[in-house]
Amino acid sequence: MPSNGSKALKLQFGLINHKNRYLTAEAFGFKVNASAPSLKKKQIWTLEQEDQDGQVVFLSSHLGRYLASDKDGKVSCEAETKENDCRFLIVAQSDGRWALQSEPYLRFFGGSADYLSCFAQTIGETELWAVHLALHPQASLLSVARKRYAHLAGPEGEIAVDSNIPWGVDALLTLVYMDGKYCLKTSDSRFLSNDGKLSSVSGRGTGYTLELKSGKLAFKDYEGKYLTPMGPTGTLRSGRCSKPGKDELFDLEESHPQVVFQSANNRFVSIRQGVSVSANQDDETDMETFQMEIDKDSKKCTFRTNEGNYWTLVSHGGIQSTATEVGANTMFDIVWLGRRVALQASNGKYVCTKKNGQLAAVSDSAGERTATCVTTKTPIRWTANRSVYDIFTLHFNDGAYHIKGAGGKFWYVSNSGLVCSDGDTPEDFYFEFLEHGRIAIRGKNEKYVRGDQGGILKGDGEIADSSSLWEY
C-alpha cells in the first residue's frame, strides 16, 4: 500500500496556566516561568515519549533542555538528557486542560509567574494547563488501525477515512484551537461534529480534547466519547468507547505541497497515458497532480504520483513514474525563473518536452524550451510574530499568484517597500519552494517578501534568507 512518505509530526505546543500566561524557558540560567502573554519561540515545548512506557513523557524546551522536578518540588529546565526527574505523566481533564504529574514523586506541577513548583498532592486550578499546539495547523490525519487517511467525501460531505494517500486539498484538515479544545475543519471551512456531520459553525459538538496514548492522538468529545472511523468508508464520528483503543488513535502527518505542471506546449504534465511522464493533457485531475517532496539536506526535489511512485531518470534521458523508492535518479534541482521553473535531472541535463509530449532530460541549458509553469494546490499560511494565523486565498495567474485576504482585499508592495493587504486590484507574486516546508515569495519588483524584527512585512529582500522564508 502506498504511503504518504511523511513521518508523524512531533507534538509541539505552548502550555497556558490558569492566569492565561504561557510556560516559558529562559536562556539565562535555564529558568522557567509562566509570565508570557503569547506563544513565541521561548514558549514552545516538544513532547517526547519514553519507548518502554508510552505513558511517560518528557518536555523539551526550545534550548533542547528537559523540564524536571526534584523530590522537594523545585522545578528546573537545564537537564541535557532524560533523567529520572524529567519523567512526567499527563492527566487529561474533561475541559481539555492537562495536569502534569511528576512520575517519580507523584506531585503535580503548577503556579504562576516566577512561582512554579511541582509539589501539589492534588489537582487544583493552579495545576491545570491549556494546550496550544504550535505545529502547522493543516495536516493529514492517519488512522492507526485502518492505516488510511481522512479526507472530505460524499455528496453532502463527511470525513471518510479510506484513502491510501492524502491527495488534494480535500485531504487537509485544519486544527482550530477554541476555548482550550480543538475543532477539525475541512477544506470547505466546515467543522466536524461528534455525530459525523459537518457544520458551518463551531459549537459544543465540534470541540475535542486531545489525549495521548503511546505517542498517538485521540480526540474526546464533550460526552467523553472518542472519534473513530466507522462503517466501510470509515466515516469519522464519535463511537461508543469511553477509553481510547487502537481504533480511536491517529497520527498527524505533515502535508507536502502538491503541484500541477504546464509545459511550453501549454498542456499539462500527466501520467494518464502510462509510466512515461508526458505533457499531453488539457485538464487537471489526480493524474496531473504531483506531490513535491524537498530533501532537507540537499534541497533537491522528488515528485510523487497519486499511485505512490516517483518520477525517475531512465535511459536516453527519459522521465518515467516507475520508481518506488527515493534514489539519485529521482532527485531534481529546481531553477526558479519568475513565472516559470526549469527542472535539472541527475544527469546534469534540463527536462524539456519532446514533440510527442514526453519529458526528457536532454537539454544543456534552462531556457524557454525547458521552462514549465507550476501551479500549487497547497493552502498557504504565513506568520511573522503572532501565535495565531490568518488564511489567505491564492488565485493563479499565468505562473504568478494573487494573494487575497478574508476581507476580499489584495496584497501589494507599496512604493515604500511595505507589503500591504488592502489593495483593490490584484498584484503578481511569485512562489519559490526552496526548502522542506519553506517557501520564498517574490514581488513584481523582483524583491523577496521578508519579515523584519518587529514582524513587519517588507518587499525589499535581495536574497532568500531566513528572514524571507515562510512556513507553508
TrEMBL record:
InterPro entries: Actin-crosslinking, Fascin, Fascin-like_dom, Fascin_metazoans
Gene3D superfamilies from the UniProt entry: 2.80.10.50
Main localisation: cytoplasm
GO MF annotation: an example: actin filament binding
Fascin-like domain ranges (all copies): 19-131, 142-252, 264-368, 383-472
Cited Pfam families: Fascin
GO biological-process terms attached to the record: actin filament bundle assembly; cell migration; establishment or maintenance of cell polarity
Protein keywords: Actin-binding, Cytoplasm, Cytoskeleton
Cellular localisation: Cytoplasm, Cytoskeleton
SUPFAM superfamilies: Actin-crosslinking proteins
One GO CC term on file: cytoplasm
Family: Belongs to the fascin family.
Protein name: Fascin
